[in-house]
Amino acid sequence: MTDSPDAIHAARHGDAAARTAVARAPNASPELLTFLAADPAAQVRQAVAAHASTPPAVARLLAADADAEVRRVLAGRIAALAPELDSKTRSRMARLSAGTLALLVEDAAVEVRAAIAAAVREMPDAPRELILRLARDTAMPVAEPVIRLSPLLTEADLLALIAAPPVPATRRAVARRPALSETVSDAIAHTTDTPAVAALLANPSAAIREATLDQIVAGAGNRPSWQAALVRRAQLPAPAARALGEIVTDHLLSVLAARTDLPQGLAAALRTRVTAHLAVEDDAQDAEAELLAAAQAGDRDLLLSRLAEAAGVSHARVEAALALRSGRAIAGLCHSAGWSAPLAAEVQAVLGGLSPAEVVHPTVEGSWALGEAELLWQAELLEGLPA
Known about the structure:
The chain is mainly alpha-helical. The chain has 25 helices and no strands.
């Protein structure tokens, strides 16, 4: 491959844009790419890193480039060659590329490792050692794509990740993997890891035994995220639905009662309960008015006591939540208690001592500014606080 005089001149004397164009040219020679690999402009080196004709020895040098974007681009290209980089190969070029990939998979920059994961996540013939290394990464942008999508991960691999997760979020990634077996679902459920079990329940393709669902329902009383996922889960057995009807909050009871797959008698009983709850809304509004008045009067003791009672947590956990000085955390706790967004704003100011700028205010219509998923997540986070 011979470079044109114009390309050589642009590589040596052109501006950064011209040099980048040379490095991107499909017919650029390995020699010219080697020269441009030492270019002072990162955008030029990025183009060299992306080029299929860049020699493996040069790629090895770029794996240590100071610019993370250069390394990220290189990681994506080299990882795409992973099936060809068998450690037993006799090709010196392949061995060089395999060594480069080994360096990049240990790169300190998450985006570099994530580029490798994105390239190999669905490869059926990627090196198994590489897949296992990525699956155990502590950064979820790296581990989750592989955990969820790699066909090389076995049931035993998934069970190992559940038993000894590198970080708590690892279990959540496993729980979101399509077509989980009953064995893996059982393992997740037995951990009682609140976010992981919620993710499992929200995974429509996860196979969950009826006995396991019953176990989850039994532990869902103080876990709003489990309740929310359970009432929406397809093919919910009637015993589980009946048990849920006894513990879910009012808004979830309405969701449960609206299901079309429940036995007729159970559906009718749930609708009756929904009607009864609606009938006492006036009392609830009176109670909220009392709490708003307490907030405006600065009655911390009453608010603290009522919040702990309504949210089903101890006074110590409420105090621990308040100590976080997080408007979102307090809003999540108030939401768990069934309180309104305007009351939650007052609680943040009075109990949390937050300034107006720190408070999560309601919308103009008086509803929650945070989404349901965010509020449930905030409540979940508080479960790890002192009880």
